[in-house]
Amino acid sequence: MDLLNTLVDKGLRRELPTREEALAVLATSDDDVLDVVAAAGKVRRHWFGRRVKLNYLINMKSGLCPEDCSYCSQRLGSTAGILKYTWLKPDEASEAAAAGLAGGAKRVCLVASGRGPTDRDVDRVSATIKTIKDQNEGVEVCACLGLLSEGQAERLREAGADAYNHNLNTSEATYGDITTTHTYADRVDTVRKAHAAGLSACSGLIAGMGESDEDLVDVVFSLRELDPDSVPVNFLIPFEGTPLAKEWNLTPQRCLRILAMVRFVCPDIEVRIAGGREVHLRTLQPLALHLANSIFLGDYLTSEGQAGKADLEMIADAGFEVEGTGEVTLPEHRAARAGGGGCGSHAEAGGCGGSAGCGSHDEGGACGSHGGGGVCGSVPAAAPAPDKAAAAVATAAEPVVGEARPDLVAVRRRGTGTDLAPNA
Ligand code: SF4
């Protein structure tokens, strides 16, 4: 296919595709999906080899948010039966970080619900970052605390944060349809503040909220313009108890096309499969590793992911390898730029490691001031967690718009905020 040959050539040269080319990737048929994956996989391997970076989410403060992001189980008015708790103590967060690192993660993402941090919250998170770094050598830390005020990014950077996550989530044109309590411009401003403070900027999107192909291309081109080091791609987890609970409109093939489009537009940027990986890609998850070079290990903020052990087995079975703490995530030209924000995993000069995944609260990364992909969920408190493997087998490939799928969404009931061990 000429389109794919052109996009591979451009990706290897770090040349931006046209909007029409990006739209054409999204418009390819299911019959062509393996060709699309193979083409985008060439670009992925050129810049990132077969490495997969593992990131680990720590939900520092869960639920009770005053913002109204439609996709979020922690939003104002959400009736999702998620865990609700206030700030973790530094030692509790450090213990959670140690579990993630033991499972193979090299970055931890500290996420808190809310519009944005107070100065006291920044003090609190700064103390947590110091504790985690003192107790876990070599760890990269990304903060995801919502909208930042003047000076807060600098303070987080001084405290040792490597990165800051805040997702754009969707196109500027549709932003007002999913959230009314803050604006798209607010989000762009926070990503710029993080960048300016020398933090590695992480910013991504949520797919599956009813947006058009044009919206998806718009947000990905906007992200590319902001020049983050990492782009988490969340697939909406439609939680019962949120306005988007019935928005089931993704197929595994559609998810692969979206990831391929993001890879072609952001060839040398860390692309992370964030929340919704298990729910929407299901048995096609391994194919997505040919497109993205980063995932979250284990559970998400308010929903459960597949077991960390299953993540590691999937990576090995698909012929990929977990990126080590001594390896630099980003290609040399990116890792070497900006003294503080370059990311690349512990290059001597202080680059971080490749960007994180949260989203100011997406699911994958947190919420949407906090991201989207993986966060919350809404399954009645008494419901047992579904068997993910069985659910995957039983699930039809075609999306079912308008019907809730509690069999695919499990509220997190282990790890931080509970007495149970995490599944990292
Ligand atoms: S995405 Fe973040 S800001 Fe929005 S409702 Fe959820 S926790 Fe609050």
UniProtKB/TrEMBL annotation:
Pathway info: Cofactor biosynthesis; biotin biosynthesis; biotin from 7,8-diaminononanoate: step 2/2
Q: Which reaction does it catalyse?
A: (4R,5S)-dethiobiotin + (sulfur carrier)-SH + 2 reduced [2Fe-2S]-[ferredoxin] + 2 S-adenosyl-L-methionine = (sulfur carrier)-H + biotin + 2 5'-deoxyadenosine + 2 L-methionine + 2 oxidized [2Fe-2S]-[ferredoxin]
Q: Which SMART domains match?
A: BATS (SM00876), Elp3 (SM00729)
Q: Does the keyword Cell membrane apply?
A: no
Details of cofactor binding: Binds 1 [4Fe-4S] cluster. The cluster is coordinated with 3 cysteines and an exchangeable S-adenosyl-L-methionine. Binds 1 [2Fe-2S] cluster. The cluster is coordinated with 3 cysteines and 1 arginine.
Q: Which GO terms describe its biological process?
A: biotin biosynthetic process
Known Pfam families for this protein?
BATS (PF06968), Radical_SAM (PF04055)
State the signal peptide span. none
Domain Radical SAM core, which positions? 47-277
Q: Which InterPro entries match?
A: Aldolase_TIM, BATS_dom, Biotin_synth/BioAB, Elp3/MiaA/NifB-like_rSAM, rSAM, rSAM_sf
Against SUPFAM superfamilies, the record matches this protein to: Radical SAM enzymes
Q: Which cofactor(s) does the record list? A: [4Fe-4S] cluster; [2Fe-2S] cluster
Record keywords: 2Fe-2S, 4Fe-4S, Biotin biosynthesis, Iron, Iron-sulfur, Metal-binding, S-adenosyl-L-methionine, Transferase
By its UniProt entry, which HAMAP family does this protein fall under?
Answer: BioB
What's the protein here called? Biotin synthase
**Which organism is this protein's natural source?**
Streptomyces antibioticus
What does UniProt list as this organism's lineage?
Bacteria, Bacillati, Actinomycetota, Actinomycetes, Kitasatosporales
What is the gene name?
A: bioB
